[in-house]
Specification:
The complex is a heterodimer. Chain A is an alpha/beta fold. Helices cover 37% and strands 26% of the residues of chain A. In chain A, the strands form two sheets. In chain A, strands 5-6-3-7-8 form a five-stranded mixed beta sheet, with helices on both faces. Classes of the chains: A alpha/beta, B mainly alpha.
Chain lengths: 221, 262
């Protein structure tokens, strides 16, 4: 269960405080529920996801996580360029309290990312595809109860894309998912419920299709 | 609830451990023989000072090898300086890691200060061993006293690091000014000379500087025949260290949101 209570958020800009991006959002998101977050650009989807993930704090209100929530997948950052893939993976393992079974997780990450010997190279020498594969493998290595996904773009070459998609489908079956996307097809595939963000307010729909049609109407209007 | 959530102290401990190992790797293994430079830097520093002072006079401190006197002073000061100056940058340097919510800005600052303290301590031990090998009497007279002085110097540095890491994040100029201030502080902490050489009315001013107390206590504990100045008061340094740490932690609590907000 993830509980949001009267969450407000605005950012500090060069010219003082900005507008309210989120303006009083109260939601209870059940643990085993796949939710799509939709809204226009700048409606606050990524902001809300960051707040749920706990990597940013609301200006007012409260966010409570009563389950293991992942970091927002698909976001850049969190890796250090001068360190090898293995060193970065070790760091993330330790951070999540997987000291004891680190060897297994590292083996999984190395295998899943298909990096081979490059796993021991500093990641600043990685191509963008290799970096994305490492990130994806990292996020598959831990058992979170709710996964936060920001615009899961296609990863790597065609073969890896297929594998990533299958892994992601398995994950969507087992765990909860909160997903930001503009891609209607993947929203329909992975999500049951939907949250539509508009004017700093959140509207909950039990069926993602209702949310999508509402969203389309709002743009048309 | 499946009971998989870890307790807050358990999360913090694993974060500290992960950050510590990560910082240690990037500090010691980055570049070509980075660890060697950690040893060579104080040695070169002492060598240059020795060269300069050999033209001025041959013995400044009765009963104490001047090279060792300088070495202990330089490392003591480095401990204080590195613990604060490197931890001031900790938040900016680790900004990418805040995408894991377990990592808080204060963790990165504390871990850096602790790592710097430990590194300088190891450097001191190695250099002492080296000095003993070339026939100098580099066995500390009062090891516990040395330990306490070093701990307080690091603690004071960590406290300043906590305070100014918040300051530098809110107003970037603060970080630059604080780092500039370390150069005059180097001369005003008596790294190169024993404070007893100063006239008494100057010493009263000299010992307003908390770091000077740390260095003087360090040398008093290290050398059996070293005469410490009567103004020496470790409690003064300890009080400064505690105040700085508490102020720094309070600032980190007060500005926790702004430090994370991009």
């Amino acid at each position: 269960m993830i509980i949001l209570e009267d969450v407000h958020k605005r950012y500090r800009t060069e010219h003082g405080m900005g507008r309210w991006v989120l303006n009083g959002i109260s939601l209870n998101i059940p643990r085993k529920c796949n939710v799509g977050l939709i809204g226009a650009n700048g409606a606050g989807k990524s902001t809300l996801l960051r707040l749920i993930g706990g990597i940013d704090q609301p200006s007012k209100g409260r966010v409570e996580r009563r389950c293991r929530v992942s970091w927002p997948l698909g976001l850049a950052g969190g890796l250090q360029g001068s360190m090898s893939g293995r060193q970065n993976a070790k760091f993330v393992c330790r951070l999540h309290g997987h000291e004891a079974d680190m060897a297994e997780r590292l083996a999984f990450i190395k295998e899943f990312s298909e990096l081979g010997d490059a796993f021991e190279e500093p990641i600043k020498r990685y191509s963008s595809g290799m970096g994305a594969r490492l990130r994806f493998a990292l996020s598959m290595a831990f058992d979170f109860e709710v996964y936060l996904v920001d615009e899961l773009t296609s990863v790597g070459d065609a073969a890896f894309k297929k594998k990533a998609r299958e892994a992601f489908e398995r994950l969507a079956d087992q765990a909860g998912l909160i997903m930001v996307s503009h891609d209607e097809k993947s929203l329909m595939q992975f999500c049951k419920a939907g949250i539509l963000l508009r004017d700093g307010q959140a509207h909950w729909y039990h069926d993602i299709r209702d949310a999508l049609s509402q969203y389309k109407q709002s743009i048309a209007a | 609830m499946t009971g998989t959530a870890r307790s807050a102290p358990a999360v913090t401990l694993s974060v500290w451990k992960a950050l510590f190992l990560r910082e240690a790797v990037s500090r010691l293994a980055a570049g070509r023989a980075a660890w060697l430079w950690l040893l060579l830097e104080p040695v070169a520093h002492v060598a240059v000072l020795m060269l300069i002072f050999s033209f001025v006079r041959d013995r400044v401190v009765p009963g104490v090898s001047f090279a060792l006197f300088l070495m202990v002073g330089v490392i003591g000061f480095n401990m204080f300086r590195n613990a604060s100056s490197r931890s001031i940058d900790a938040i900016t340097a680790n900004a990418a890691l805040f995408s894991y919510r377990q990592v808080k800005p204060v963790d990165t600052v504390l871990v850096r200060a602790a790592l710097e303290g430990l590194i300088e301590f190891v450097v001191l031990v190695i250099l002492c061993a080296g000095a003993i090998l070339i026939g100098l009497d580099a066995v500390p007279h009062d090891p516990l006293g040395v330990w306490i002085a070093l701990l307080l110097l690091t603690g004071f540095g960590a406290g300043l690091g906590l305070v100014f890491s918040v300051g530098a994040d809110l107003v970037p100029e603060i970080g630059k000014i604080v780092k500039l201030a370390f150069t005059p502080l180097y001369f005003m902490s008596g790294v190169m000379f024993p404070p007893m050489l100063l006239p008494q009315y100057v010493r009263e001013w000299f010992f307003l500087n908390p770091a000077a107390h740390g260095l003087e206590a360090l040398r008093g504990a290290f050398f059996a025949d070293y005469h410490v100045a009567p103004e020496l008061d470790l409690g003064y340094l300890a009080a400064w260290a505690l105040i700085a740490i508490f102020l720094g932690l309070a600032l980190h609590v007060r500005y926790a949101q702004r430090l994370l907000a991009r």
